[in-house]
Amino acid sequence: MIPESDEPAAPTPVFFVAGGTGISAETLGNMMLQQFPSVSFTRRKIPFVTTVQQAQAVVAELDAAVTDSVVPLVFSTVSDEDIRAELQKTQCAFIDLFGSHLDTVERVLHVNATHGVGALHGVGDKGRYDARMKAIEFAMEHDDGASLRNLEQADLILVAPSRCGKTPTSMYLALQHGLKVANYPLVDEDFAAGGLPRPIQGLVDRCYGLLSTPARLSQVRGERRPGSTYASLAQCSFELRRAEALYRAHRIPAINSASMSVEEMAAVIMQTSRLDNLG
C-alpha cells in the first residue's frame, strides 16, 4: 500500500497509444484509472502508430512529459513487435495491454498471431465489419421513432421518455456489437392511451425500457429547454411513473440510466436480453 500524501499532487499524464483508432487502449486504460478516484489525470490519445519512426517520435513526446515528481502512464495496444519494442524504450510507466496476453493466446491456440492492426480492430473480418456498418445505418434510420420501416428486423427496440439515453445506447450497441437497434420515444399521446404504442405492439419481446430519476431527467432536459414544462420536475416525474407502469404491465425489462455509463447499460441490456451470443 502506497502512503497517501496531504500535499495536492500534480495531475498524472496518461497516454493511450495504439496502432489503430485507440478505442481499445482508451477503454481498457480508463477502466484501470477508475480505480483511483482520488487521483487527477490528463489524458491524450495517440492513434495510428504504424511505423518505427512514428514510435520514436511518440517516445520523444512521452519522455518530455516526465518530471522529477510525475511519471506518466502509457497504455498501449500496439500489436507490431518492432513498434512495441521501440515504444517500450520510454521513461514512462509502460502498460502493454496487448503483448503478454497475445503470447498466452498463441500458446493456447498453437497458432502464431498475425500482429496486424486490421485484425485487432475487426476490419480483417469483413463480414463482421459490414454487419456493424449496416447496424449503424439501421440505428440512425430508426432513431427516436423517425422511421417505422422494417422495424421487425430490429434485434432490440429501446423504449423510453425523451432524454433517457436511447440514442447513445442504440449507437453504441450498433457500433460495438453489430446489433440492429431501434429506439422509440414515449410521448404524451402514448401515456394518455395507456397501452403499448401501436408500432411496437407486436414486437414487445424485443422491447427494453429505459428509465432515469426525475432530478436527473429534469437536469438533462433543462440543458436543452431551460425553464420549459418539458424540463420541469413535475413533468419528468409524471412521464417516468407512466413509463415504469407501462413496462410493468407488458413485462418489458427496464434499466435506470441515471448513474450508469453507456457501456454499462449496453452490457446489462445484452445480458438480460440474451443478445450477447449473437453474431
From TrEMBL:
Enzyme Commission number(s) of this protein: 2.7.11.33, 2.7.4.28
Catalytic activity: [pyruvate, water dikinase]-phosphate + phosphate + H(+) = [pyruvate, water dikinase] + diphosphate; [pyruvate, water dikinase] + ADP = [pyruvate, water dikinase]-phosphate + AMP + H(+)
Keyword Transferase on entry: yes
Entries under InterPro entries matching the protein: Kinase-pyrophosphorylase, PSRP
Keywords: Kinase, Nucleotide-binding, Serine/threonine-protein kinase, Transferase
GO molecular function: ADP binding; ATP binding; phosphotransferase activity, phosphate group as acceptor; protein serine/threonine kinase activity
Source organism superkingdom: Bacteria
Pfam families: Kinase-PPPase (PF03618)
Top-level EC class as recorded in UniProt: transferase
UniProt-annotated binding residues for ADP: 160-167
Function, as annotated: Bifunctional serine/threonine kinase and phosphorylase involved in the regulation of the phosphoenolpyruvate synthase (PEPS) by catalyzing its phosphorylation/dephosphorylation.
HAMAP family: PSRP (MF_01062)
Entry-linked NCBIfam families: PRK05339.1
Protein family according to the UniProt entry: Belongs to the pyruvate, phosphate/water dikinase regulatory protein family. PSRP subfamily.
Protein name (Swiss-Prot/TrEMBL): Putative phosphoenolpyruvate synthase regulatory protein
Organism of this sequence: Pedococcus badiiscoriae
Phylogenetic lineage: Bacteria, Bacillati, Actinomycetota, Actinomycetes, Micrococcales
